[in-house]
Amino acid sequence: MTDRAVAQQFGDCMARGDYSTAWALLAEQTQATITPEAIASAVAAMIADAPGPILQAQVMDDCIVENWPAKQPGDLAVVYVALMGESFSEAVTLTLAQYGEKTLIRELEWGRP
Fold this sequence. Notes:
Blueprint (H helix, E strand, L loop, with lengths): L2 H14 L2 H6 L3 H4 L4 H11 L9 E10 L9 E10 L4 E11 L2 E9 L3
Antiparallel strand pairs: 1-2, 2-3, 3-4
């Protein structure tokens, strides 16, 4: 799967509230520090002041960065995923890396920058 497709799948999981499947997209060392429950808590905190759930996720193609100062070996891209509800737009920024044959999320940052 491409880095963009993994990022979109993660965002779609946020919109469905499927935090276990989202967690499965994380790299092993990231899974060791973030649980599916922690993902759910982060999402809940991020949208706490907004009515309703996340309805749609969208990878922002013009916000995909392939070269950045903190890039590590194996890193592919930093991808910004908009998370939209009825009256809000939040985001998650994902750092995607190659692990063998898989593209996984090495790092995530909640909220708009």
